[in-house]
């Protein structure tokens, strides 16, 4: 019985090994058949992938070109609309009486202290503004000879200056440091011009 058992082990082990090898062969053969059926689809995907890479590179170049154009346009826009020396100059002897004009932010005198953009001008020794171009003028300072002007640094906004009269003060903000200095100089020049034009009547008043 022992000899029979020993002889039986030889072919049973070999049979198990052969069955395992057949199973492995069947598994990989089925996998190959399945993937072989997918081969055309994978080749198609590879072609589409190559085209996607090309399209992506083209789109990237186009976006970089557009970005460069936008930067160039933005730079030219700011250059075109930047205030050069001629645009911020004031003229106390202007024929129309307007010494200087332009947009400024005005801080409201209410409790909320909101800032509103208004069209300001210095004319007839007065500081006035309009909400819109054709609106009625609102007088901020009736007589510039009775006021002073000074830059303000210790507030939450940049490029601010204050026009102070005996009855009230007005906080204003320019768009740049150059504009702030121009407005301050325009107010000071208007005050000096008003004194030169009618000193006697002012002293009588």
Task: Give structural notes.
This protein has 205 residues and is an alpha+beta fold. The chain has 2 domains: 1-84; 98-197, PH-domain like. Helices cover 54% and strands 21% of the residues. It has helices at 2-81, 85-88, 177-197, 199-204; strands at residues 98-107, 115-123, 126-130, 138-141, 148-152, 160-164, 169-173. A 7-stranded antiparallel β-sheet has the order 4-3-2-1-7-6-5, covered by helices on one side. The model is unreliable at 81-86 (pLDDT under 50).
Summarize it.
This is Arf-GAP with coiled-coil, ANK repeat and PH domain-containing protein. This protein is of the alpha+beta class and 205 residues long.
Helix and strand sequence: HHEEEEEEEHH
Q: Could you give the order of strands across the largest sheet? A: 4-3-2-1-7-6-5
Overall number of domains: 2
What does the main sheet amount to?
A: 7 strands, antiparallel
- Mean pLDDT level: 85
CATH C-level class of the largest domain: Mainly Beta
What is the C-alpha radius of gyration, as a whole number of Å? 43 Å
Distance between the termini: 144 Å
Shape: rod-shaped
- Determine the strand fraction and express it as a percent band: 15-25%
Q: Which CATH-level-2 architecture of the largest domain?
A: Roll
CATH fold-level name of the largest domain = PH-domain like
